[in-house]
Design a protein that fits this description.
The complex is a heterodimer of chains A (565) and B (368). Chain A has 565 residues and is mainly α. Chain A has 28 helices and two strands. The chains are: A mainly alpha (565), B alpha+beta (368). Chain B: This is Spermidine/putrescine import ATP-binding protein PotA.
Chain lengths: 565, 368
Amino acid sequence: MSDATAEPDKISGPTPDNALRAGDRADDGPVLAADGTPLKRSLSRALRAQKLRALALIAPLLIFVLVSFIAPIFDMLFRSVENQIVGETLPRTVVALADYDATSDELPRDEVFEAAYYDIFIAAERKEHTRLGSRLNYEQTGSSSLFRKSGRGIDDIGEVYQDQFEDLDENWDEARPWAELMGDPDWIAAQDAWGGEGRMPRFELRDGISDLLPRTAETYQIFARFMQTEEGESPLEEEPWTVVHTALYQDLLAGDVSGYTGPRADMLVAADALVESPGFETVVFRDAFEEIDEDWLNPEIWQTIKTYSPTYTSGYFLNSIDMQKTPEGPALRDEDERIYGLLFQRTLWMSMIITFSCILLGYPIAYLLSNLPMRTANLLMILVLLPFWTSLLVRTSAWKVMLQQQGVINDVLVWLGMVADDGRLVMINNQFGTIVAMTHILLPFMILPMYSVMSTIPPSYVRAAKSLGATNWTTFWRVYFPQSVPGIGAGSILVFILSIGYYITPEIVGGTSGIFISNRIAYHISSSLNWGLAAALGTILLVVVLVLYWAYDRIVGIDNVKLGG
Amino acid sequence: MPDTSHHDAFVEFERVQKSYDGIQLVVKDLNLTMPKGEFLTMLGPSGSGKTTCLMMLAGFETATHGDIRLDGRPINNIPPHKRGIGMVFQNYALFPHMTISENLSFPLEVRKIGKSDREAKVKRALDMVEMGAFGGRRPAQLSGGQQQRIALARALVFEPELVLMDEPLGALDKQLREKMQFEITHLAHRLGITVVYVTHDQTEALTMSDRVAVFDDGRIQQLAPPDELYEKPQNSFVAQFIGENNTLEGTIREMNGDRCVVQLNNGDLIDAMPVNVSQVGERTRVSIRPERVEFNKDRLQEGVHTLKAEVLEFIYMGDIFRTRLKVAGNDEFVIKTRNAPDQVRLEPGAQIEIGWLPEDCRALDAPN
C-alpha cells in the first residue's frame, strides 16, 4: 500500500506508466511492453506457452501417427533404393570386381573367382546365399537357382585340400589342434573353463598368426565366432569349415612358415612341405565354379553383380518404368517385357473414367438432396450413406453376382430375349466390371462433398438470376454450376486419389485386363516378395498423386475445395 | 363475374389465396391495386404473408387461387424470367464468382443486348449508385452497403418497370440503413419505377413509402399513406403495430356521430372518436398516441373529460422526454413531450390530470 501514497510519477522501475514513457522516448526503438521488455519478445513468450500447450494436446496422436504410419511408410519407401544385400553378402567379390569392366563381354580375373569362393562359402554357411540369389534373380533370371546350387557344391573345393592335409596328419581334421594353432592361449583357457552357463568367452586370434597366415586367420575367426554365436558350439570341439583348409593352402603357398615356433609348429611346417611337393593336388577356382554351374562362365552374372554392387540402386525405379540397369546405363526393356507403363496408364485412365462417372451420377443426386426439405434430404442421405455401412467385400461380391455371365443381369436380358443364351454379355473380370463396381463404391465420396457445397448455395442466387431474366438452363449453367465447382473438385480429388490406389475391388472383379497398379504392388509385397520393386512402384504412385494434387492446387486452388460447411 | 380491374392499375392482386400445405392459408383473400410509379411497402410481422405475396408477384410461388395482373396482363402462368421484374434480395444475392460488372451485365447478356450497349448501360447503372470505380471487383471485396447498392443497380440495369425489394436493408447497420432508405426512395422517384418493398421495420415503411400495406394473419389490415396509417389506424392491430401507442379498454356509453363517450373499466369517462365501433354498450379499446396526450390544463379544450394520473417514471431522452404514468389501472401509459425551454419535467409521484383532443383518441375494436 505504500505505492498508493508515493507519487506515481516518481516511482522508478517497471511500471506501466514508465514503460509508456520509455516507449514515447524511443520512437524508433522497439516497442516496449509494460514491464520494459521489447513487445515482440514479450508477445512471443506469451504465445510460446499457447503453442506448447497445443503441441502437448496433439502429441499423443502425433507420436502414434509418426510411429505407426509415417515411419513405416518411409521405411518401406526407403527399400526402393536400398541395396546393401549384395555388398554385405559378397564383400570380397565386390572389392575384387572394382576394376572389372562390365561393358566388356569378358570374364573377370581369377582373383574375383577366389573372392567369390570365400564369399559364397561363408554366405552358404550363414544361409544367406539364397536371399542374395532371390535378390539377383529380380535382375537376372536363373540367379536364384545358380546361388542355391553353388551353396551346395562349394564345399567340394575345400575338401580337396582338407583330404590331403588330413592324409598328412589326422590332426588337420581335429578341432583342438586347429584351435591351438589359431586361438589365443588365454581364450583357450577361458573356453576350457567355461561351464556352459552364460556367454561363451569370445574367440580371439593368437598374436602374430594373422601376419603368418592372413587368409587362414580371417576365415578361422569367422568360423569360430559363427560357431560361438549362431550355433552355440565351442570352437574347441568343432572341426573347421573346408574353406579354412583352402585358405591354409593359399597361405602356405604364398608365405614362408619355416621360422615359426609357436604351438603346432611341426604340423604347420609339415603341411608347408606338402603344399610345396609336386604331387599336391590343387583346384583352379574358375574351373571349380564351372563344375558347379556353367552359368558362372557367363559374363552376365558378373555384370549383374557388378551393376548391383553399390549400397543404393536406381534399379527398382528403372524396373517400375519398364527399364533396366545395364552395364551401359539405363535401357528400355524389350517390348514384351514392359508391363508397368501400361498398368500406370490404365490405372490413371480408369480412375479418370470412374471419377467422371461419379460426377455424372452424383451431381443430380447432390443437387436434389440440397434442394429438398431437411427431413426428406436426411432420409435420402441415409440411402446414400447406406453403402458405407456395408462391407466393401459384400458390395464387390454383389457386383460379381449381378454382372457374371450366369448372373442376374444376363439372366434377365436372356429372359427378355434381348441377348441370346449363347451370347451372354461379358461384364465381369474386365475393365467394365471394375469401372461399374468402383463407381458404385466410390459414389458417396463424390456425393458428400458436392452436397455440402451445394447446400451452402443460397436459393436466392437462383431466384436472383431468374428475376434478372435468365432461363432455367442459363441460371444453372452461369450461376449455380460455377458455385458448385468446388464441390465437384473436392469430390473428384477424393474419388480419383482413392481409386488410383484401389486394390480390393479390381482384385475381385478386375480379371486380368481390369487390375490396377496397386494389385501389382500387392503381388510384389505378398507373392514375389520383391519389396524393393513394390516400394518403387508405391513411391511413383505417391509422387503421381502429389503432382496431381499440386497441379489441382495451381489450377483450381485448394482453398476452393470444400469438404464440409 | 364483374370486371374489378382498374384501368390505371399497374399491379393487381385479385382475391389471391395461397396455401403451402393444403390445410392453412398463408394468404387469405388478398386484394391490392397499385398505380404505376407508386412506392408501396408491405409491412407486417414475420409469418404475416407479406413475403409470400412478393414471391407470388415475382413468380417464385404460384397463387393457389385468384389472379395477379401486371399492366393488365394475368401473370400467373408466366415463369419468373419472362416477367421482367427487377428484384433486390435481403442477402444481396450478388453472384460471388462474377465481378461487379459481370453481375450487372448478366441481365443484359441474357436479353441478348450488344456488347457496346451493355457496357454503356452497366456504366450508367454503376454511376447511378455512385459505384463507378468498383466494376472490376468481386462482391466479397465490397462492404455490405456497397453490395446493396450493386444489388440495386443490378435490379435496375435492365430498366424494369416494377422492382421488388425483399427486406433489402435488413443486414445493414442503423446509420447505413437510414442513408440507403433515403437513396432508394429518391432513386425510385427519379426513375419513376413502381416499387413493392417488403419490410418488418415500421420506421422504414413510414419514411419510404407512398402507401403502406399492413399485413397480419394473411390479410391486409390497412392500406394507406404513412400519415394516415399512423394517425388514423383502422383497427387495434394497426394501431399497436405502427408506432408507440397507449391503450385503454372500456365500453361505449354514448354515440354522437363522430364523437363518443367511453366508460373505462374503472368507471372513468373519456371522449373518443369511433372508428370501428357503432353501438352503445359495445366493448372497445381506445388508442392514444403518446405525443398527443396533454397534461397542461390551459391547453385542453373546455368541457372534455380528463383522467387522473400518477407519474411513475421520467426518462430523459435528449430530444424528447418520456414519462410513464399510471392511468385507469394501466401503469404502462406513456406520454412524450418535446424538450422545449418551457417544458415541464414531471416528477415521479406527482398527481396530474391528463386529456386529449377527442379526434386523437380512437375507439377501435376490442380484441377477444
